[in-house]
Structure formats: structure tokens, C-alpha cells
């Protein structure tokens, strides 16, 4: 792996770093608006980064709602809870109308 390329990507695209560096601007804009759902068996292995991001947000004092749902992958996570899809649609709709 080219370390310079890895460093560049981390500096420019790492969501934890970007949020941490911009938190004073972001924090007043996002209360109640961050909802992240991932399965423990995510096909793209996003579950571990989501857990790390959850810790970062917690340390920043965010009220983000983050759920890591056991036994579900990237495609079937909506089957984890019959109301999850409805909840996400409702939350997204409220952002558009507010």
C-alpha cells in the first residue's frame, strides 16, 4: 500500500476526522438528525467502522442514534425490525418538510 495515498485519503475522506474537525459548525445543525443502522454481518464490513464512528460521535457529545443490529447484512437489515423501513422513511420525510 502506498502510504502517501492512504494518508491523503484519511485526511480528505475519513468521516470521523471530518466531523471532529468541523464539529463546532456541525453540532448545532445535527441534533436529532443523525440515524445510522448497520448489521453485524454487513457485506461491506461497515459494522466495525460504524462502531468506531459511534464512539467518535459519543465523545463529541452527539445525540446520534446508531444501531448495530445482530445477524443482519447490508441487504437484509430492513428485515431486522418490521418498523425500521417505516421509521427511516418517516425521519427522512420530516427532514424534507421541516
- Structural class computed from helices and strand pairing: mainly alpha
Q: Strand portion, in percent?
A: 5-15%
Tell me the number of strands: 2
Helical residues, percent: 40-55%
Q: State the major sheet.
A: 2 strands, parallel
Give the mean pLDDT.
Answer: 90
How many domains would you count in the coordinates? 1
Distance between the termini: 45 Å
Radius of gyration computed on alpha carbons:
15 Å
Which stretches of 5+ consecutive residues score pLDDT under 50?
Answer: none
Q: What coarse outline follows from CA principal-axis ratios?
A: globular
Adjacency order of strands in the biggest sheet = 1-2
Oligomer: single chain
Describe it.
This protein is mainly alpha-helical and 98 residues long. It has one domain. 52% of the residues lie in helices and 10% in strands. The chain has 4 helices and 2 strands; from the N terminus they run ααβαβα. A two-stranded parallel sheet has the order 1-2. Helix 3 links the parallel strand 1 and strand 2. Helix 2 runs parallel beside helix 3. It is globular. The termini are far apart.
In short:
With 98 residues, this protein is mainly alpha-helical. It has one domain (29-97).
Topology:
Elements: H1 3-13, H2 15-26, E1 35-39, H3 47-60, E2 65-69, H4 84-97
Parallel strand pairs: 1-2
Helix pairs in contact: 2-3
